[in-house]
Write a structure and sequence with these properties.
Pfam families: Gly-zipper_Omp
Order of helices and strands: HHH
Radius of gyration: 20 Å
InterPro entries: Gly-zipper
Strand content: under 5%
Oligomer: single chain
Keywords: Signal
Protein name: Glycine zipper domain-containing protein
Structural class: mainly alpha
Amino acid sequence: MTTSHSSRLTLATLTLLALGACANMTRSERNVGTGALSGAALGGILGSFTGDLGWGALIGTGVGAGAGYLYEQSERSQDRSYRRGVQDGSQHRSGR
């Protein structure tokens, strides 16, 4: 087995294990985790261009987790607005 093939197999196995760990997560945990993982990957790629893969991944993780958190807060706000609109609409109809 070549080193490249072995690395790909290891990466695929780790990816499957990470996805399996997400099965019992809440929506909020998934959004923040996905943001952190995506940020780490993008930060690692960008860091590799400057020769500092570790710092790029670390900074990307923080930025990605923050972005995932903000996305979750936006989703919650939209959910609350939707429920409020449904409730207002049903009160309006029953008042007729």
